[in-house]
Write a structure and sequence with these properties.
four-stranded mixed sheet; binds zinc ion
């Protein structure tokens, strides 16, 4: 755990965020919309290997994409 820098939102199931896809997510796309989010906030989209590129491009062309990390590194939500 890092004491500094942005902290990604917790994630529930590791399922791809692409519409209609129910594949296991292997990647976490960390993004931030500066009009909506504070600078250290990281929203998380999950992606399977097939959709990582598509979702990265979608966020990247809007200037929102900050980082892509293995899904295993993301903080799981504890059912609270
Ligand atoms: Zn997918």
């Amino acid at each position: 755990m890092s004491l500094f820098g942005p902290v990604p939102d917790a994630v529930d199931e590791l399922i791809c965020s692409s519409r209609g896809c129910r594949s296991d997510a292997t990647w976490g796309l960390l993004w931030n919309n500066p009009k909506l989010h504070t600078p250290e906030r990281r929203k998380v989209w999950l992606a399977c290997d097939d959709h990582r590129e598509h979702l990265s491009q979608y966020l990247g062309t809007r200037g929102f994409l900050q980082d892509v990390v293995p899904a295993a590194e993301l903080e799981p939500a504890t059912g609270s």
